[in-house]
Amino acid sequence: MFCTHMNVGLSRRDFLGKFALGLGGIALSELLSPPLAAAPASNAFAGALAATHHAPRAKRIIYLFMAGGPSQLDLFDYKPVLEKRHGEDLPASVRMGQRLTGMSANQARLPLARSIFPFARHGRSGAWMSDLLPWTSRIVDDLCFVRSMHTPHINHDPAITFFQTGHQLPGRPSMGSWLSYGLGSVNQNLPAFIVLVSKDRIDQPLYARLWGNAFLPSIHQGVQFRAGSEPVMYLRNPAGVSAAGRRQMLDRLAELHAQQFESLGDPEIAARVAQYEMAFRMQTSVPEVADLSSEPASTFELYGEEARQPGTFAANCLLARRMAERDVRFIQLYHPGWDQHGSLPKQIRRQCADVDRAGYALVTDLKQRGLLDDTLVVWGGEFGRTNYSQGKLTADDYGRDHHPRCFTLWMTGGGVKRGFSHGETDEFGYNIAANPVSVHDLQATILHLMGVDHERLTFKSLGRNFRLTDVEGQLVPDIIA
């Protein structure tokens, strides 16, 4: 019997692993080819797509995520009706029985609340903006406003997770991970996907799974840069360990991993080696990109003095520009603190002061350096805010609850129309009146601008093919230049 010659101790995993050695072994052998320090890591970090599905309009993305849900009614969506009917109850014909959060569902009444902030038209496009954003108002003719965003999720965690991963439950790859997986890395000395979180705004938690790789290979997870002298934790050599010693250790470790791969054929082993090699190169590249000492005084005149303070939104915007110059594929900035259920006028002033000048500076800086044409910048949160006041309404104070029915975000650069507004809300700012855009529609359009067909970038896990947009998502051609 032929089976008498088989090793009965060989597990099913080992047996299948032997058959994986053909392709995987080639990939790892290329990674481990001497000299290891110069190994072609592009093989490990290359994208799954042999080529983009169509000509890309953008090479990279800077996503400015305003966690908490900025109030579109106090920033972008001017509604004179709210001025006229301030303090009146939200009409049942407008609400149409739509659900409320538990925070305002038990209010005796839902009084309409005007914005106390003056609005005006700006630029040749005549876009409405409140005086909370004087710097952003200067660049409205570079912006594409999407005023008809909507989401099915009314609470923060599922809504943010949905925006970042295409699904409301944890366990799916983030958008940055999908693009890293599909398109790979351009700069072999920096990760394809980098995350920056404003250190001084911790009003709500943000979880690392929002930039996680989930079931995609681990080399595609986002790498968080922190404020201070050590942007990436544990990147420096410990005391007493030289660069040469680190190099020798990695060489020997790679040899052990090669033996393990030969035994198991697990592709994550190759991914682990690639990450070690990237970390070694990042010991030089990360301090270089994070060092702002070479920036001229004119840079800080543009971004403001806050840009000198590591971890502020302004400093992170400046770092994002430096990363864009170095062809980092996806740069995600999170600025929490937009969850203004009460004392909105006071709190939103603080938030806008954080982001207004810095956002303007980033767009202006990219533009003057010739980077805006192939860099897509996105600004927005996970949902909007209600047109009625949560809690007590006074002449100069009010709060707004979560509102997933309609909200506004803006985009610029990277192939989108400029000085353009897409979609509109009703006169109460409660429902969408024209051209609705879902979260999956937005994700499909972002991928399209990067040269990727959202229906064709998939990964098989647990017996089925997954994609960022799940089973939905339609391109929004009207916003593409």
Give an overview in words.
By secondary structure, the protein is of the alpha/beta class. It has a single domain, classed as 3-Layer(aba) Sandwich (Alkaline Phosphatase, subunit A), CATH 3.40.720. The chain has 14 helices and 17 strands. Strands 1, 4, 5, 6, 7, 8, 11, 12 and 15 form a nine-stranded mixed beta sheet that branches. A hairpin with a 4-residue loop joins strand 2 and strand 3. Helix 12 runs parallel beside helix 13. The longest helix has 25 residues. The protein is globular, with a radius of gyration of 25 Å. The N and C termini lie far apart (69 Å). 47% of the residues are buried. The N terminus is likely disordered.
Structural descriptors:
disordered N terminus, 481 residues, nine-stranded mixed beta sheet, Alkaline Phosphatase, subunit A, alpha/beta, 14% strand, two-stranded antiparallel ribbon
